[in-house]
Amino acid sequence: MTEHPQTNARKILAQHGLHPNKKLGQNFLTDAHVLEKIVAAADITSDDLVIEVGPGLGVLTTELARVASKVTAIEIDTNLAAILRETTPSNVEIINKDILKTDLGDIIAQSGFLRAKMVANLPYYITTPIIFSVLENALPINTLVVMVQKEVADRMLASPSTKAYGLLTLSVAYYGKVSLVANVPPNCFFPRPDVHSAVVKIDVAPHNNINRGIFFPIIKAAFANRRKTLQNCLAASADLNLTKDAAAKLLFDASLPESIRGEALSFEDFARLATAYEK
Ligand code: SAM
């Protein structure tokens, strides 16, 4: 990086008569140390295809392109896509599209790579749809390194019996292992966002041995009402179709106390519950 990214972001926008679009979550990363941490966490080699969501002004894109074989970056903003096409290295492909309307499986297949890594400073208004479209559709993406709101990172990384622990924690845990890469304060962006951010890494390794069609209804039921016992929550779920007695037996079969609340269960406890239900 030859120039401080902060000056760069301001300058490039001004040169093109553009302003950051708040609705599109345009908070451009300006901190070189955070950029380095993101790229290092993704552990990219010269054989890798990297998918970037929302390249913005290309500050992360350019760093990724230095180490990857190819970077495919999907940017919804037509003005930014035009700038990126002029300014990014030749191993970067810019796709001017909405990520939620983009078939990433197709892009990876067409590119000739067997799999890809996703690295992105995500637009926060669609963080979870983007992450879960990768995880739920079993796309050939084995690593995600993404900047998200700190509150979302906290929920992904939460321990049982804490306020942040719940559906998001367990849903991500089903699909892989999450770790914290960096906490990122608002002053690392231009313009400054209203929230704190964090970079997380998800190493994708789905628990395919646990029936998804059972595990997810169970965790949804367990957190539908935090004040109720797990037994009552399970019995109240239309998806699970259990009487109160059947819910009690299920807890017994999974070696869980009758009065326990869902928030006290670990991922392994929920996995045992799903297995007991299947039987
Ligand atoms: N990567 C840049 C950086 O780190 O400085 C910009 C990150 S900014 C938080 C999010 C980017 O996502 C913006 O460039 C925005 O235009 C883009 N974006 C927003 N919604 C999008 C969507 N639905 N599909 C693709 N890109 C989107």
Total DSSP E strands: 9
Q: Give unreliable regions as ranges.
A: none
- Please list the strands of the largest sheet in the order they lie side by side: 4-3-2-5-6-9-7
Intertermini distance: 58 Å
Query: Can you list the ligands bound to this structure?
Result: S-adenosylmethionine
Q: What Rg do the Cα atoms give?
A: 21 Å
Concise account of the structure shown:
This protein is 42% helix and 18% strand. The chain contains twelve helices and nine strands.
How is this structure best described in words?
- The protein is of the alpha/beta class and 279 residues long.
- The protein has twelve helices and nine strands.
- It starts with a helix and ends with a helix.
- Bound molecules: S-adenosylmethionine.
- S-adenosylmethionine binds at residues 24-29, 53-57, 59-60, 74-77, 80, 98-100, 121, 123, 126.
